Amino acid sequence: MRRFVAAALLVSAIAVPVVEFDAPKVAAGTPQFAGFTDSFVANTGAATGIVGMPDGTVMVLVQSGSVRLIRGDVLLPTPALTMSLTGCNGGERGLLGVALDQDFKANGFVYLYFTHPANAPGGCVNRVSRFTMTGDSIDPNSELILVDNISSNAGNHNGGDLEIGGDGFLYISVGDAGADPRGDSNPNNAAQDLSLLNGKILRVVPSTGEPAPGNPISGPGTASCRLRGNLPTTPDTPCQELYAWGLRNPFRFAFDPNTGPDRFFINDVGQSTHEEVDVGGIGLNYGWPIREGLCPLGASPPCAPAAPGFTDPFTDYPRTLGQVITAGAFIPNGYWPAEYDGGYLFADAGSGNMWLRRSDGSINYAAPFATGVQAIADMAFVTSGSPTDTIALYYTLSSGSVRKITHAPTPFSAPGPLRFRAQSGPGSRVLDTRLPESGNKPVRAGTTRYVPLGVDPAVTKAALVNFAFVTPSTSGFLTAWAGRSLKPVASNINAFPGEVVANSAVVPVDANGGILVYAFTTAHVVIDVLGYFDVAPGAVSAGRFVAVSPNRIADTRQALSATNQFSRGVGTFPMVNVPVAGRGGLPAADQIGAAVLVVTAQTNPTDGGGFLSASAGGAGFSGSSNLNTNGFGDIRANLVVVPLGPDGSVDFHLLSVPDVVVDVAGYFTSAAAPAATAGRFHVIQPFREVDSREGTGFSRLPGLATATIDPVSVPANAQAMAQNITIVDNAFAGFVTPYPGGSLPVVSAGNTSAPGQIHAVLSFTQLSAAPASMSYFTSMPTDLVVDTPGYFEGP
C-alpha cells in the first residue's frame, strides 16, 4: 500500500498556476525606506539562482544553462560553465539553483540544481550535481551526480533551491511537479507521499548525495530514493532523503547566517489564495494540498489553526498583494542600520513587492521594503572582496538582469580621547563559535559575524580583544571593525590551514556596542575581551598608558638573575609566576592598573600544540587563553594586558609550552595615579603605515637591518602607537623588534619558527620624542605590514 502522512485528502481538482520566467522587464526596483539605493549591475539573460563567492565575486545562473560571474560589478565575458539543457530550459525548467561548499576555498565544490532531458514522463527530470571550480571555470567533466530523476512531468513546480546548512549537509527544495508523478492521483498528492521526492525539502550528504544521518525517515521499510526516479512503477517505500514535506513549490529558501546557521525559512508558492513563508524544521508537514497558507485549501481567513500533524506558516499573504513568492534572504547583522538586524526579506515576482520581516516577527505588508521588482527570481547578500566595500543585496530578474540594493555605511568618526578599563572577573568571552550557544558552527569564508559586546556605546568606544582563529580550512585572515562602518584595509590575524592562532586587537564599537568579524576562509572564531576604552574628555587618573623603552624581565630559557626573575609552579596547567611591578621601568604595584607585556611562547620540536593564559598573580586560571602554539617548535608572541596580583606579579598558565619570554612595553595607570591627559588613547580607522611588498613605508628588509618611519596616522607629539605588525614571507626563522630608535633593545614583538610564515602581533610601542618616529629591526629577510588602529597622547 502507498504510504502517506496521516491526513485525509478531501480536495477536488486543482488548477495549477505557472511561475512565469518571462515577465515584463522593469527598469529598476525602488527601495521605499530612507538610505537605500537600487542600481543596475549587469545583463545576463534570464537569471535564476545567485550566490556570493568568498572573494566577493557574484555567481549567477542563467536559465538556459550557463553560469556567469560578476566581479567588481562587471560581467566576465566567458561563462564559467555552459550546460546543454535544450528542451528542458523553458517555462519553469532549466538551471535553477546553486550553492557553494562551506569549504569552497579549499575544494572548489559548486552544487547545481537543473532540469535535463530524460526518458521519463514529461521528457525532463531534475538533477542535483556537484562540480569542481578552478579559477573562473567550472569543469563540466567533474560532475558528480548526487540526486537525479526528480519528476518534472508537468513542467512546472520544480522548486530548485540549494543551501549548505550549518550542519554541513546539502538541503534541496523540490516542488510537487505540477501533476502527480505517478499519474494515479487527482488532485496531485505528491507533497504528502513520502515515497516521492517531490513537494519536499531534502537533506543529503554533499560528498555523496546519500541521506543525511538524523533524517526523520530511516530504518527497515525505507529506502534511498536519490537516483530511482518517480514512475508509476516506482516502489512505495518512504524516502530517507526527506527532511520536511507538504510543500507545493518551495522555489527559494534561506538559512540565517546570524545563527550559525541553523534556522531557515521556506518561501512556498501558493495556488489560488495565498503565498506563504514557513519556518524550516525536521519532520514538519506544511499541509499542501490539504492546506494553503493559514487556511484549509480554498478557504479564506480567519481560519482555525492547523490540525495536529500539520505546521502552519508564520505568515501568508493574499493574491491581492502578490501572486508568486520567490526570493528570500536574511539580513546579515551589523551592516545596515540596527533596526534591520535579524530581519528577513522576501519578494513576490508577480506584484514586484519586497517585504521585510523584522526581528520581532512583524511584517507591514502595506509598506513594502521595495517595489518594482517584478520577475525577481533570487537574491543574496554578498560581502564584497573590495577592501573598502561592505555588503549589498544582489538580486536576479528572470527578465534578464542583475541588480543590487545598498545602504551607505556609517563613516568612521573619531570619538576623542579614551581611557582604558581592564576587564575584571569572569565572563570576558563574548564569542566561541565552537560552542552550542554561539551556533557551534564556524564563520564561513567571505562572511561576517556581528558580535555585541554588551557595553554602553555612549561610554565605551573601543575594546581591546583577543582573537583566536581556529583551524581555518585554507590560508586566510580575520579582520574586525566597528559594525555598520566601512571595512578597513587591514587584517588582525593570519593563519595557515589547521592552525590555531591568537592575536590581540583594538576594535572600535558601533553605536550599538558591537563589532563585525570577517573571515577570509572558513574557521572557528573565539573572542575574549581584555578591556575597554571609555570616553575621557579631561584629565583622568586611571586608564592612561605610560610607555617604557621595551625591556625584557623574564626568559625561562635563561638562568635566574637580578634582571631575569620567575618561578615555576605546578597544577592542572603548569604555571610560571613573573614579578612585574617595579621592574623593566614599571612603578610600584599600586600605580599600575594593568601591565602591558609582550609574551612569547615556544614549544619543543616534538610537542603538539598548546596555549598560554595570563592572569593576575594568585588569581587562578581564567579558562581563556592569550596565545596558542601549533607544536613542533612553533614560536608565537602576543600582546598581553593584565592586572597584577597583590604581590605585583602575573601568572602564566601553560599547556605544552615549556618556555616563556616576557617583555615590558608599558602600563595603564591605576586610580592612585595623578590625574593627567597624557596617555589617553585615540582610536582611528586602521591605517596601513607600512607594506614593504608595495614599497609603502619602506622596502623589504634584508635581515639584520632596521627601517624607520615617521608615522602618518599619529601626531608628532604622540607618546606611543598601537600597531598590528605582520611578518610576511620571511626567509628563515627569526623575529621583529619595533622600538623608538636609539640602541636596539633585547626584545621582540613577533617571531617565526620556519621560512614562509605569516605571523601578526599587536604591539603598543613607545615612539621617539617629537617628531614621533618608529623603527623596525628584523633578524631575517622579510616583508612587514603595519596597520595602526590608534595612538596614545604625549605629555
What is the CATH architecture term of the largest domain? 6 Propeller
Query: What is the approximate shape?
Result: elongated
**What's the gyration radius in Å?**
30 Å
How many β-strands, per DSSP? 54
CATH topology of the largest domain: Neuraminidase
The level-1 CATH class of the largest domain: Mainly Beta
**What is the overall pLDDT average?**
92
Layout of strands and helices, then pairs:
Blueprint lengths: L29 E2 L4 E8 L3 E6 L5 E5 L3 E6 L2 E2 L5 E2 L12 E6 L3 H4 L1 E9 L6 E11 L2 E15 L9 E4 L5 E5 L25 E5 L37 E4 L6 E4 L8 E5 L5 E6 L11 E2 L2 E2 L18 E4 L6 E6 L13 E5 L5 E4 L12 E2 L4 E8 L7 E7 L3 E7 L10 E5 L6 E4 L14 E6 L7 E11 L5 E7 L10 E3 L4 E9 L5 E6 L4 E12 L9 E11 L11 E3 L5 E5 L12 E11 L7 E7 L10 E3 L5 E8 L6 E7 L3 E11 L11 E11 L13 E5 L10 E9 L5 E6 L10 E3 L5 E9 L7 E5 L4 E10 L3
Antiparallel strand pairs: 1-25, 2-28, 3-4, 4-5, 5-6, 5-7, 8-9, 9-10, 10-11, 12-13, 13-14, 14-15, 16-17, 17-18, 18-21, 19-20, 22-23, 23-24, 26-27, 27-28, 29-37, 30-37, 31-36, 32-35, 32-37, 33-34, 33-36, 38-46, 39-40, 40-45, 41-44, 41-46, 42-43, 42-45, 47-54, 48-53, 49-52, 49-54, 50-51, 50-53
What would your notes on this structure say?
The protein has 795 residues and is an all-beta fold. It has 4 domains: 48-322 and 332-340, TolB, C-terminal domain (Neuraminidase, 6 Propeller), CATH 2.120.10.30; 413-537, Jelly Rolls; 545-669, Jelly Rolls (Sandwich), CATH 2.60.120; 677-795, Sandwich (Jelly Rolls). Helix content is 1%, strand content 43%. The strands form 14 sheets. Strands 3, 4, 5, 6 and 7 form a 5-stranded antiparallel sheet that branches. Strands 29, 30, 32, 35 and 37 form a 5-stranded antiparallel sheet that branches. It has a 5-stranded antiparallel sheet with strand order 39-40-45-42-43, with no helix packed on it. A hairpin with a 7-residue loop joins strand 26 (376-383) and strand 27 (391-397). The protein is elongated and about 95 Å long. Residues 1-27 have low confidence and may be disordered.
